[in-house]
Design a protein that fits this description.
With about 270 residues, this protein is of the alpha/beta class. The chain has helices at about 25-30, 45-50, 110-140, 175-185, 205-210, 240-260; strands at about 5, 10-15, 60, 140-150, 165, 195, 215-225. Strands 1-3-2-4-7-5-6 form a seven-stranded mixed beta sheet, sandwiched between helices.
């Protein structure tokens, strides 16, 4: 199975498309040795978000590494951020810009199509069906696309990222009241910096499934990994740091879910 889905009883679905760490054995020889350390993984999010059952959330988690397929890219591989460095549907570079594959071993068109069918499509089918299930019960759905990233990656962006990077595709993927609720939570604390629709505005999942006009609202959170783990090998989880940021994450999700529900109160 290319994903794991746990269905909840609230209107919240949390997607974790980049936490996968599996590379099929048949593909491993094509990568440079460095790739097998999976440095660009969204590490430990399932542990960081361990409070989700308290919110009744559904959780969708990827099994395979983003080095196999990037589940947050469109199936036609169109760039998400024109004019900036982008990773592809089947990435060929690390976030540093270095080659991910051995010479002449990058996936050809046929292999990319196979991976799209085998790994990408099942995840998105499950995502779509779960949103439909949630909406059928509640009349609306809130999709939270959970990500994390190293705070400094010159190939992708200049300088140091804010700690929390919220994206609603420039306001098109969620009702403005949801973004306002999130900003209120963020401005009420001085623990960590934040930005809304900055460098990371939301990838394919946020843009594709966030359709407020149909009752589905989507928010992406790209958070800096130093908030809860070590950003270098061995990429270990820091339970002390995590315990400090988890209450803020929970408050953000709670506020977003409340704001979303308020739109449909009768």
């Amino acid at each position: 199975m290319s994903y794991c889905l746990q269905s909840g009883n609230s209107a919240l679905l949390v997607s974790m498309p980049h936490i996968g760490t599996e590379i099929p054995s048949a593909l491993r020889a094509a990568y440079v040795p460095r790739a097998l350390s999976l440095e660009d993984t969204d590490w430990h999010l399932e542990r960081l978000y361990d409070f989700l059952p308290e919110l009744g959330a559904s959780v969708l988690r990827a099994h395979y590494s983003r080095y196999v397929i990037d589940l947050n890219r469109p199936p036609d591989d169109a760039p998400m951020y024109p004019g900036a460095s982008n990773t592809e549907l089947c990435p060929t570079h690390f976030f540093t810009g270095d080659a991910l594959y051995q010479a002449n071993s990058e996936p050809a068109a046929g292999e990319r199509a196979r991976r799209r069918q085998t790994y990408w499509l099942p995840y998105h089918t499950a995502l779509k069906r779960e949103l439909e299930r949630i909406k059928a019960i509640h009349g609306y759905a809130l999709l939270w696309d959970a990500h994390s990233i190293r705070s400094q990656i010159p190939w992708l962006f200049e300088g140091v990222l804010p700690g929390l990077n919220l994206g609603t595709a420039n306001g098109s993927s969620a009702d403005p009241s949801i973004a306002r609720a999130l900003e209120q939570v963020c401005t009420a604390q001085d623990q960590v910096s934040y930005v809304v629709n900055g460098r990371f505005k939301g990838g394919y999942i946020t843009r594709q499934y966030g359709t407020p006009q149909t009752g589905v609202h989507a928010v992406q959170l790209e958070m800096c990994q130093y908030l809860y783990m070590r950003e270098a090998l061995p990429f270990d989880y820091d339970a002390r740091k995590a315990s400090e940021i988890q209450p803020l994450l929970k408050a953000m999700l709670t506020a977003a879910l409340s704001a979303c529900g308020a739109l449909y109160e009768k």
